[in-house]
Specification:
disordered N terminus; 3% strand; globular; mainly alpha; two-stranded antiparallel sheet; 12 helices
């Protein structure tokens, strides 16, 4: 039922812009450090090179406003434990290093407050995590971003990245649907602790 409601949901502009930002960051990293990107994201070097040469339009095709393309690759219990502890309520502006982290947690908080099940599917995390995030304050989520590392991995088959980049307009819709299906089936909210 959650998958059905997810497929009927409208794209969220904030999710789309965040996903596009992550793809753009990955493109820039691929230009500078292709081997490291290949290793960290388990992408063939040829795919990383294609990503480094990707146009804005191609990055837009990789991005989604319904299913975030990246998932947390650290155990959720780290983040849950942090959110369940007391924290310094006076948190100064996070360092620039935690900008993406703060944006991620604040966005998850916003989507979770609307629907924790849809948020779990959108971010590829457990309902338990989205429930706790929905109850956290913005300051608490920024504190989490400052305190915890947030390694990401791609939620779908790495081969699809290259296929989408190389695809023509007629075939790309099928590949994007395949990407969403893989994201939901392999990680979409099923990572219960």
């Amino acid at each position: 039922m959650n998958i059905a409601s997810l497929s009927e949901s409208q794209a969220d502009r904030n999710v789309y812009e965040f996903d596009l930002s992550l793809w753009t960051l990955l493109k820039h990293l691929a230009e500078i450090h292709p081997r490291e990107v290949s290793e960290q994201f388990t992408l063939p070097l040829e795919t990383v090179e294609a990503l480094a040469d990707a146009t804005k339009h191609q990055l837009e095709l990789l991005s989604s406003g319904v299913i975030l393309s990246f998932k947390l690759s650290s155990p959720e219990k780290i983040y849950i434990s942090h959110l369940e502890q007391s924290f310094d309520q006076i948190c100064l502006t996070p360092s620039s290093d935690s900008g993406f982290g703060a944006a991620y947690w604040l966005l998850m908080g916003k989507v979770s407050q609307q629907d924790i099940n849809i948020a779990a599917q959108t971010f590829g995390v457990s309902v338990n995590l989205t429930k706790i995030v929905s109850q956290a304050s913005d300051n608490q989520l920024r504190n989490l971003a400052c305190s915890q590392d947030m390694p990401f991995s791609i939620r779908f088959s790495p081969e699809l990245v290259r296929e989408i980049l190389d695809s023509d307009e007629q075939r790309v819709t099928h590949l994007i649907l395949k990407k969403h299906q893989q994201s939901i089936t392999t990680t979409g909210g099923g990572n219960e602790l």
